[in-house]
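Below is a filled-in request sheet from our internal design queue. Each sheet records the structural input a requester submitted and the sequence that came back. We keep these sheets so that new team members can see what a complete request looks like end to end.

REQUESTER: design group, bay 2
PRIORITY: normal
MODE: inverse folding
CHAIN LENGTH: 514
BACKBONE (tokenized):
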């Protein structure tokens, strides 16, 4: 091989180092990218990992991205996938853009072959984007490469119909958003080495719907070989359950009827704004029964038909406060003591009312929130620990900083509601949330550094550790409670099952009514 050919071959398989005279440039399988250098390292934003799912590709499995000529700018985030406006910063307007299958790569300066974390955002599978977190500081502090991913949402990502079944290779539609995530993982396997990452050390992670996505991907046979560990943050709700094929196609038929469509041609011709307007009353989630997810995740874990990789799994102590606030106090109608018994009986029954007496909680809304969070998040997370333990190591935590500031979306509301350690609040301890530094005090910044160490160690080595801190337990029934020193510090709790009334919520048939 000539010297020139050897130099070209080296350029194709190794990262191009940042030069003082210009921004960093990397060649991917599809073409050259120009990123930028920041105080934290290098970043490449808005990288397409699949063809835009538009026109005839709407409701199709993701197709490999087409190569481009020249050097493509990777200095700005790509489009957010189709979704409604919300109270989150940067989401004041809806997105009707289907060309959104992009990802972002954050790389610390220095040596290559670094462990990789791929982050799936939350948002109930109907909202959010990879840019919701900026993990550049996390990447530098942990010495890892971090990738954040956009994937199709709502009806665009999870519509199942008999017509779409006929186009699916396995006869089961409705998993387009999940297949997007796997397409992103295949892109990582093929390209991340060029950025300095190790394609053999990929951890998938996510919060809320992103954590649920991790749970689903761990149970998917088609994800085999794409990951070596998983982090589930507040993602065990519903025991990681998927819709049945029958339920999903029935919902799809009702959705098509709402749009006045009798066939796929009609559905594909509808503007994204009409699709978005019609999707609100339907449940959008993965579908079990096909090659992507042959059985429910819970069954796959229990039967050993799932990835036997290390998992970090946890929830927050006060998960339900966000949802109780949204139902009651946000609208100026806090739950009253007179209303509380009837609301609790209607939603959870008499036994739950007895377990969550008003006298044990600061307010009726917070009493209701405790029941909601325990039923929906805390106890499912503990059940998942036990189920997953049969197929590999599971490390359990509970984020318990009740002094944590409300996350950015809530801060902007200007409310004095006591959110405590509510849903989403731990994210700001790990990353810049919506690009913003959280207003943490000195103790909270110390806890954040410890959490970054636990998460980073797990991504690098598969075992969560932090200097001078307790080990994260891997025995079902115990968790590492993450707290500031004035609240007792990080400590292993063996009472968490009792604390969250899980003997009630684990009883067969005890679920939220309505």
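RETURNED SEQUENCE:
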């Amino acid at each position: 091989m000539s010297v020139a050919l050897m130099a070209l071959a080296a350029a194709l398989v190794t990262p191009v180092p940042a030069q003082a005279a210009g921004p960093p440039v990397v060649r991917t399988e599809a073409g050259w990218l120009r990123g930028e250098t920041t105080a934290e390292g290098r970043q490449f934003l808005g990288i397409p990992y699949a063809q835009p799912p538009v026109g005839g590709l709407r409701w199709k499995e993701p197709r490999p991205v087409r190569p481009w000529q020249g050097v493509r700018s990777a200095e700005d985030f790509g489009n957010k996938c189709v979704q409604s406006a919300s109270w989150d910063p940067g989401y004041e307007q809806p997105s009707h853009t289907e060309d959104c299958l992009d990802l972002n790569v954050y790389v610390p300066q220095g040596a290559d072959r670094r462990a990789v974390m791929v982050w799936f955002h939350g948002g109930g599978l109907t909202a959010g984007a990879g840019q919701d977190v900026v993990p550049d500081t996390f990447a530098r502090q942990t010495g890892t490469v971090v990738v954040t991913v956009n994937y199709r949402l709502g009806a665009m990502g999870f519509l199942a119909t008999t017509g779409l079944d006929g186009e699916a290779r396995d006869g089961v539609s409705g998993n387009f958003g999940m297949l997007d995530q796997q397409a992103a993982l295949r892109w990582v396997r093929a390209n991340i080495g060029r950025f300095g990452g190790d394609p053999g050390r990929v951890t998938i992670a996510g919060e809320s719907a992103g954590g649920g996505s991790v749970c689903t991907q761990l149970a998917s046979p088609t994800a085999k070989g794409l990951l070596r560990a998983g982090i589930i943050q507040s993602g065990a709700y519903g025991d990681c359950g998927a819709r049945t094929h029958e339920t999903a196609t029935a919902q799809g038929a009702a959705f098509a009827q709402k749009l006045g469509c009798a066939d796929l041609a009609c559905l594909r011709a509808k503007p994204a704004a009409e699709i978005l307007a019609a999707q609100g009353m339907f449940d959008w989630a993965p579908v079990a029964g096909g090659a992507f997810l042959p059985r429910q995740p819970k069954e796959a874990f229990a039967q050993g038909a799932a990835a036997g990789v290390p998992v970090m799994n946890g929830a927050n102590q006060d998960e339900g406060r966000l949802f109780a606030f949204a139902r009651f106090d946000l609208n100026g109608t806090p739950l009253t003591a007179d209303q509380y018994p009837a609301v609790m009986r209607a939603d959870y029954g008499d036994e739950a009312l007895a377990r969550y007496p008003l006298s044990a909680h600061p307010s009726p809304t917070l009493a209701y929130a405790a029941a909601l969070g325990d039923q929906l998040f805390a106890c499912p997370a503990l059940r998942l620990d036990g189920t997953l333990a049969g197929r590999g190591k599971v490390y359990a935590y509970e984020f318990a900083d009740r002094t944590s500031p409300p996350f950015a979306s809530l801060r902007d509301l200007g409310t004095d509601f006591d959110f405590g350690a509510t849903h989403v609040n731990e994210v700001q301890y790990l990353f810049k949330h919506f690009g913003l530094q959280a207003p943490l005090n000195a103790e909270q910044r110390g806890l954040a550094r410890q959490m970054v160490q636990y998460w980073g160690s797990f991504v690098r080595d598969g075992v969560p550790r932090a200097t001078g801190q307790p080990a994260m337990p891997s025995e079902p029934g115990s968790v590492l409670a993450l707290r500031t020193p004035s609240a007792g510090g990080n400590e292993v709790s063996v009472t968490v099952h009792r604390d969250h009334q899980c003997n009630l919520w684990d009883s067969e048939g005890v679920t939220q009514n309505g």
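SHEET NOTES:
- Residues 32 and 71 are 5 Å apart (CA to CA).
- The two ends are 70 Å apart (CA to CA).
FILED BY: M.R.
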